[in-house]
Amino acid sequence: MNSLNSEAFVLFGQHILWSDMIGNILGLIALALGWRRNLWSWPVQFASGLILFGAFFGHLTGSAGKQAVVMAVALYGWWQWNRDKGRGTDGHITPRFATWRERGAMVAAAAVGTVAVALLFKAYPSLSWDPWPDAYIFVGTIVAMYAQARGMTEFWIAWLLVDLVGVPLNFANGYAFSGFVYVIYGALVLWGMRDWWLRSRRTPQPVLEGAPA
């Protein structure tokens, strides 16, 4: 894996490693496939996490651990979409809006998770270079991937909220290449959200158990 940590090129004064470049490109491809509701979004996301895990393992334990969680959620997404793809008329999953209960649960999980992960990062400084925003981006990514796995259109909003912190954070810390990648993520998110939003408006909403008919 040492070759993955070698320098690919220099851009905007930033030394770009092969692992960063390949992992970011695969992440963009995974998001684009998610927009198209393509099942291969999850294997590509898993491959992105695997490459970054291999690059970080042994010297950046916190970053490697985060990628391990991303890979686990990618496996869950693959399993979930395999279950749900047959329910749509076009052979893909059918996007839907989350219920208010689901939205509340995701907001609560994001808030509690961010605080818990940030405190963990602060307790072990080697796990993160900037605990609070790093925790926000990490937990937000997991929430977004979970919502995507469940076919919720709100997953695009979660990605957008991650981008709103990720873009200025990377540029402010001199990571222009990573910031530029987040800008592309943002553009894909807006296009994907429009597509899923329109599809979700044509999808009957789920009824919670016990709700009045």
Automatic annotation (TrEMBL):
Main localisation: membrane
Pfam families: NMN_transporter
Location(s) in or outside the cell: Cell membrane
Keywords: Cell membrane, Membrane, Transmembrane, Transmembrane helix, Transport
Membrane topology: Multi-pass membrane protein
Parts of the chain that traverse the membrane: 12-34, 46-79, 105-124, 136-162, 174-193
UniProt xrefs under PANTHER family: NICOTINAMIDE RIBOSIDE TRANSPORTER PNUC
Family: Belongs to the nicotinamide ribonucleoside (NR) uptake permease (TC 4.B.1) family.
Full protein name: Nicotinamide mononucleotide transporter family protein
Species of the source: Streptomyces cylindrosporus
